[in-house]
Amino acid sequence: MFDLDFLKGLPAQVRLTNGSVAGDGLRLERAWNGDSMRATLTNVSMEPVHVREAALMFGRFPVAASCPFYAEGFHMLSQHGGTLGEPHNIGKYGTDEAFFRLKKSPFSPDTYTAYSLMLLSPTQCDRALMAFASCKRFMGEFRFRGNYIEIVMDCEDMELRPGESWAFEEFCALFGANRDALMGALAARINANHPRRKYPEIPFGWCSYHAISGVKAGEMVEQARAMQRRIPELKRIQIDDGYQSTTDWLIPNPESGADMKEMCGRIREAGCEPAGYIAPFVVSKRSRLFQEHPDWLLMGDDGLPSQEHCFNREWYVLDGTNPKAVEYLRHVVRVFHDEWGIRYFKLDFTSYGALPGVHHDPHKTRVEAFRAVFEAINDEVGADSYILGCNAPFWPQLGLVDGNRATNDIFRRWEIVGGNMEELTGRSWQNGRLWINDPDGVVLEKRDRSEIRDGVFRRAICELTDAEFEYHKAYIVASGGVVTSGDKLDEMSEANLEVLRRMMAVAGDAAVYDDDTFEIGRIEGKDKRLLCVFNHSDEVKSIAVPLKGRVRLSDFWTGAELGEHEGHFTLFDMEPHSARVIRVGEDAR
Predict the structure, then answer these.
(1) Which ranges in the chain are annotated with CATH 2.60.40.1180?
(2) According to the CATH classification, is domain 520-587 in 3.20.20.190?
(3) Per the confidence metrics, is the pTM higher than 0.85?
(4) What are the beta bridge partners of residue 578?
(5) For residue 246, which phi and psi values (nearest 5 degrees)?
(6) pLDDT digits (tens, 9 = 90+) for 86-123
(7) How deeply is 123 buried, as exposed, middle or buried, from its count of CB atoms within 10 A (0-12, 13-18, 19+)?
(8) How far is CA 309 from the centre of its chain?
């Protein structure tokens, strides 16, 4: 294993757009303060220089290629795990490079790329967490091939003018055995650089996306009335994508049956709070915005609006360095807030705002473009509203959201349910530290979902077993985050409404897992002690749960007593893809 002295002894390198390595004309200074480091790059020459990247540290690390690791991706849909020698992507959409067609650096063409955070675990008693504790201007990358690792600041080929200096993001290296403690220490560093927004409650609600086809005013009001009648604790009706015309957020979709002002008013009359949705950076080529203001968009090298990195080929990207584009978004959220009474903003597909391209202001980075828009939204509506980042680039949004979607969309298939749990385990430490985690919707009813979108009939079949529904319920509890129903509230069983109530009652604290199998998670909060036990495997399995002292146990969902136990408690013959949530009572002695 390595230590701080090893990192301090690694070489650094400034790499230029022309493919060469910088000489004496550029000075890279690394200043260590304990276990954190801040680097500064200064142009001491008389000529401007275009900088591709700065490798703050690189070399072969004294760990085996078989060393397990976890790392973040650029955006919500990408995480990384496996070993240094055999890395793999976590999530169904592949790597960031594949999803967004991001180009490999010519300086590191055969390396694997992760972002912002990398945890090395040669053993579960000996870990090294390397991470960037800020993201105000530059994206941090970890590139590796086996035990060769580069820690890089992406400078985006920007021009560094004579006498100009760039202050890079804070880097820190933390060592220890306890994974959650290391992540907690990192969160404290991050919060020092990006003070966390703290919404006064965990917002619960219902979302149209999982329950009905599109957005129809009559159905939305019907669900609001059902909420008020059957489970008013949920409080909010999330009006998701579909109320608007393409990506013109203030132009209603004529098929919705009402404009947003009327729909919000009717939901409020039914006793619920309307919640809003926009994708601030996304501009459809069919939108009025695209037709009238193509100059507000992120450009390509040819000077035309660029789709080079857009996963959806229907979309272009609003440029956050263009003041007119930012003012337009200010106006949009101001209407939502002041005229429609919205106090909950779901901001979707926000990773598009941090994609590479040619900006209106060539001296601004993609991180700055992203943060300019989020800072404007915070300024306009942040004082009394909940701001949720979704499909987001995690580090660029630090300090600018109340909540963050941590997983893929939920569907009633094991591939998705099991995958969402795997995504959550890597990010559970963020809940209550960086923001409130959002594990996406809770689906409890065995029903298929169909819709007609863009003239195409789509049907999602429910494929979950009873055991897999229990697994889904358990990871929602283990997330500690938001509870958002994805079933039709007027059709839900009373038993499943009670499940939602129990989830809401214990929300707030995420599970801390015993080890890297993530089979046993423990929630310790005010007036609650819970065990979340998962059988992730495809086989029947018995799991022994260590206990502290002699305690009374009961089933969380039913209240059924499981007796007094001391030392350990074994769940015998757990079904494949199943889970149990167990309440731990006071010491029985």
Answers:
(1) 520-587
(2) no
(3) yes
(4) 535
(5) 45, -120
(6) 999 998 898 999 999 999 999 999 999 999 999 999 99
(7) exposed
(8) 19
